[in-house]
């Protein structure tokens, strides 16, 4: 069986969907601390899991003896700045509990998401390399940096086959983002279709690395399916995606919705978070080690997102 922890989230919902397509519904156990979302509830087995409750977590590992575990439960960058201690505790202790039980129960492979948020103001801003100065100044960012260290440590000390990706901002239509700084790039599509306008909380020229969810899910499955000897990075792989600003995204949307209008709010706390992150990422190591190739550029993503989103809102 495959256990997905944090199944209700933006990535979790899509990963459960994708993994069930590959392994069959009954073999993929969705789990979360909250009630299953509609997308999750009606698609297969679900368990309540609190990664901070060792007894509960141990019981789930005991019951399902998972061969793969995806530990996605986390608090993201914007919410993390409002609840720093909770974000550190969940993101750090939750990961360590999962790593410990993965070793104890002989789990074959573990996946854990990192983020481009592990880079900070002194990291190179363009084509940020796999290795460089990393001074993240958000709790979320340094919890992900520390988490990468833990993953590499468990691989080296216990031989655990744990794999990770530094996701850019993710854009998808099946599930909403949960409290991040890149959430604007999803909200803009919903607002464009519903109201024909959107007020961006990031300034017009704020370039960030982004990725369409279909690419992010394919990258995750490709990474997890690659032979272990091809995986040279046991902290977390850079994943680049596409870099664009809110203004560039708005212009692309206007090609489909000519009357769409964007405005800019200004003085939002998420602006400082976005300004601390790189504008583009070098993911050549992922390309070399396990054959990563991006499929969705900005035009292709925008067309696919609008086409699918209008069928569900
Ligand atoms: C966030 N969506 O905004 C997440 C992601 C790179 C951004 O880590 O916090």
How would you describe this protein?
By secondary structure, this protein is α/β, with parallel strands linked by helices. It contains twelve helices and twelve strands. A seven-stranded parallel beta sheet has the order 3-2-1-4-5-6-10, with helices on both faces. Helix 3 (54-64) runs parallel beside helix 5 (84-104), helix 5 runs parallel beside helix 6 (139-158) and helix 7 packs parallel to helix 9. The model has no long low-confidence stretch (mean pLDDT 97). Bound molecules: (3R)-3-hydroxy-L-norvaline. (3R)-3-hydroxy-L-norvaline is lined by residues 76-77, 115-117, 140, 168-169, 177, 180-182.
**Which molecules other than protein and nucleic acid are bound?**
(3R)-3-hydroxy-L-norvaline
Structural class: alpha/beta
Low-confidence stretches: none
Beta-strand content bin:
15-25%
Please count the helical segments.
12
What about the largest sheet?
7 strands, parallel
Number of strands: 12
**Rg result:** 19 Å
Q: Based on CA inertia axes, which overall geometry fits? A: globular
Helical percent range? 40-55%
Task: Give the N-terminus to C-terminus distance in angstroms.
Answer: 33 Å
**Order of strands in the sheet with most strands:** 3-2-1-4-5-6-10
Mean pLDDT: 97
Spell out the helices and strands N to C.
EHEHEHEHHEHEEHEEHEEHEHHH
């Amino acid at each position: 069986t495959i256990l997905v922890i944090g199944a209700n989230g933006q990535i979790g919902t899509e990963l459960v969907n994708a993994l069930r397509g590959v392994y069959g519904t009954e073999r993929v156990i969705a789990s979360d601390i909250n009630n299953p979302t509609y997308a999750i509830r009606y698609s297969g087995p679900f368990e309540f899991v609190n990664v901070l409750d060792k007894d509960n977590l141990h019981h789930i590992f005991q019951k399902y003896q998972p061969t793969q575990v995806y530990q996605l439960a986390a608090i993201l960058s914007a919410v993390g700045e409002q609840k720093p201690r909770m974000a550190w505790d969940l993101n750090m202790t939750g990961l360590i509990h999962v790593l410990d039980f993965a070793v104890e129960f002989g789990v074959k492979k573990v996946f854990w998401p990192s983020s481009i948020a592990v880079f900070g103001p002194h990291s190179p801003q363009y084509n940020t390399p796999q290795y460089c100065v990393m001074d993240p100044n958000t709790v979320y960012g340094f919890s992900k940096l520390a988490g990468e260290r833990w993953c590499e440590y468990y691989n080296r000390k216990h031989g655990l086959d744990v794999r990770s990706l530094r996701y850019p901002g993710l854009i998808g239509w099946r599930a909403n983002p949960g409290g991040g700084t890149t959430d604007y790039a999803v909200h803009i599509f919903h607002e464009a279709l519903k109201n024909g306008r959107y007020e961006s909380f990031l300034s017009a020229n704020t370039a960030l690395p982004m990725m369409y969810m279909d690419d992010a899910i394919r990258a995750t499955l490709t990474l997890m399916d690659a032979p272990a000897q091809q995986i040279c990075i046991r902290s977390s792989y850079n994943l680049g995606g596409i870099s664009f600003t809110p203004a560039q995204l708005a212009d692309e949307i206007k090609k489909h919705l000519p009357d769409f209008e964007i405005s800019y709010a200004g003085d939002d706390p998420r602006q400082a978070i976005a300004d601390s992150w790189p504008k583009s990422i070098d993911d050549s190591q992922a390309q070399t080690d396990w054959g990563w190739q991006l499929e969705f550029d900005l035009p292709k993503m925008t067309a696919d997102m609008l086409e699918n989103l209008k069928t569900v809102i």
